[in-house]
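At this stage, I put together a protein sequence along with its fold in token form, as given directly below:
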Amino acid sequence: MARIDSFLKLGLAQGCSDVHLSVGVPPMLRMNGDLMPIKFRQLSDTELETYVLEILTNKQREVLESGHDLDFSYVADEGGRFRVNVFRKVTGIGAVFRFIPADVPTLDQLDMPPVLTKFCDYHQGMVLVTGSTGTGKSTTLAAMIDHLNEQRALNIISLEDPIEFVHPSKRAQVIQRELGTHVTSFADGVRSAMREDPDVILVGELRDAETIMMAMTAAETGHLVLGTLHTTGAVKTIDRIIDALPGELREQTKAFLAMSLKAVVTQVLVKTPDGRGRRAVLEILVNNRAISKLIQTDQTHQIPSQLQTGKDQGMQLMDQSLLDAISAKLIDPDDAIRFANDKRKFSRFVTDTDMVPELELSDDRQGGR
């Protein structure tokens, strides 16, 4: 058994989401969003590098020694699958291990809104799941893929960096390909996938202009494309895609988004009232005629009003979703306010008196606009 497995085993036993290993501090666990050190000595550079090198292949060692970060999947000897990032910093090597459950959660188990199931029924177009790092985007997409796998006889091609949840084929055929192992880039992976008779293509991250363009092409040519972006709202997602592509393609990009973008789901993870878990809270855009027109006429700033009035179509604004979850006592209001756009709406729910000066400052800033 690799020595690093002892830390991973302890982390799993404690129910953490991530294990952080860094030089000069003890190993740390991410527990319900907070970092907590374990009772262990501070790790030295040599010690930690020895631990990490023990689980790397020769090729991975070469990549790390050349100065590049590493992203890969790791299965501990005593069970447990992890997504791993290894990097170098000023004080030496560092690594983060994120736990990947063996069983893919269902949309029902994640308590997702019913409209996400409807998104899986689309036969073409693009559905994006967005949010900051660590907000559960991969888990939501895995649940959507699992739903498709259970319900429809499809050819699903997944491009990931690295592969996280493993999907055994059920009604569908699920082909999972890993960046760096099976394909050289997301863009090349999408290009290859389009020649492999796909029905659904999952793109792990739309991280550059070439990948976005290839994903758009796939969505326009009769495929359902699922993907992620590191954006924190529906409007920011649309603007990010438009701004990511060359200026001469701006009108073409807006036309694509107006016609082929089916939905944008933005999620955050908020602590539950007892502090023992976290719950996904979503902003949801479902593209319709009104939103398409706003995209084409450069009026994306008016989209939030459409989300507010589109509840019957499954749409919801982030602030309203947070307020609804607070009212239902599903989330901690003191944590929820961190994700709110208009924090004034949440001031009456806050119980942490230390936050009051910050809220008053926020009110002053918004009042001066």
Observations:
- The longest helix spans residues 137-151.
- The first strand starts at residue 18 and ends at 22.
- The mean pLDDT is 94.
- DSSP finds 14 helices and 13 strands in the chain.
